[in-house]
Amino acid sequence: MKLATIKNHTRDGQLIVVNKALTKAVKVPEIAQTMQGALDNWDTIAPQLEEVYKQLQNNELSDVFDFNSSETMAAIPRAYHWADGSAYVTHVELVRKARNAELPKTFWTDPLMYMGASDAFIGANDDIEIENEEWGIDFESEVAIITDDVPAGVNAKNARNHIKLIAIINDVSLRNLIPNELSKQFGFYQSKPWTTFSPVVVTPDELEDAWDGGKVHLPLISTVNSKIIGTPNAGVDMTFDFGQLIAHAAKSRSLMAGSVIGSGTVANQGSPNGSSCLAEIRCLEIIKDGKPKTPFMSFGDRIEIEMKNDQGETIFGKINQVVKQYEPIN
């Protein structure tokens, strides 16, 4: 099934069920008001939502309305936990190569992960609001999953059973703020503004054969100002699948229902089908020519991110954002 959250003048929005074609939707307040409410009681709520999805597909409901992705918030507008991995080690290897830094062998055996800000995620059509272009504005096209309750110490195989919903996201990065933050050896903070969700999230079965239980085997399409930047396959060169990422996050504590875990920037070795962020393109330029020529994003630039099935149909809808400047309040 496909689910979304639409604006209703509250922080957590209104949960809706969306049809497969992303053309029609229905509210389900009698089942669950919010996405978090559904996830808190997933075993009970999911079958009810699935029945509504079936009825929606069969045109058996009367209170249906046209689905408009511009009215969506993030599927889960705020989450108790947001952890982003770096599952495509080939991407990390390339970045380090560009600055003549050796990749530690442990990167291939132990996932990288940071805890991000989850007090708010933003919708697929919301502007990316940044104060200063000199901060190095970049998009990062990723896949993400949302879990139910995950016990501490779960192994990677059993962790897969806790994957309830899948999305694509834009994990915006401010590249020129990162070096100073990391030099303090305390992780990202200012360099990671709000993360963007696709219009809808889907249960794993919606991906059919493209989902192997831990990876999505489909291209992730990133377009900047109407130019396709990359279409790497998310199932290729993913060193750590989502089961492994969940197990890593739950090594020393349990995870609560509604935890969001990202894949990190989707990348394929050698970038044969382009890149999922501008930083990777710049690294390739540095390795080839000694310096980057592709600029980071500017105010007014548009980033679109989408994933389609083998029939060319959009799965999650399209992330479609414009970079805008905000004025600081003194």
3D architecture notes:
With 330 residues, the protein is an alpha+beta fold. 19% of the residues lie in helices and 22% in strands. The protein has 7 helices and 18 strands. The strands form 4 sheets. The protein has a 6-stranded mixed sheet with strand order 6-5-16-9-10-12, covered by helices on one side. β1 and β2 form a beta hairpin. α3 crosses α7. The protein is globular, with a radius of gyration of 19 Å. It starts with a strand and ends in a 5-residue tail after the last strand. The mean pLDDT is 96.
Write the layout of secondary structure elements.
Elements: E1 2-6, E2 14-18, E3 24-27, H1 35-40, H2 42-57, E4 65-66, E5 82-85, H3 89-98, E6 113-115, E7 128-130, E8 137-138, E9 141-147, H4 156-159, E10 163-170, E11 173-174, H5 178-183, E12 196-197, E13 201-202, E14 220-224, E15 227-230, H6 242-249, E16 260-262, H7 278-289, E17 302-307, E18 319-325
Parallel strand pairs: 5-16, 7-18
Antiparallel strand pairs: 1-2, 1-13, 2-3, 3-4, 5-6, 8-11, 9-10, 9-16, 10-12, 14-15, 14-17, 17-18
Helix pairs in contact: 3-7
Which key features would you list for this structure?
330 residues, alpha+beta, six-stranded mixed sheet, five-stranded antiparallel sheet, 7 helices, 19% helix
Q: Which structural class do you get from the secondary structure elements?
A: alpha+beta
Which spans of ≥5 residues are poorly predicted at pLDDT below 50? Answer: none
User: Radius of gyration, rounded?
Assistant: 19 Å
Classify the beta-strand content into a percent band: 15-25%
Order of helices and strands: EEEHHEEHEEEEHEEHEEEEHEHEE
Gross morphology: globular
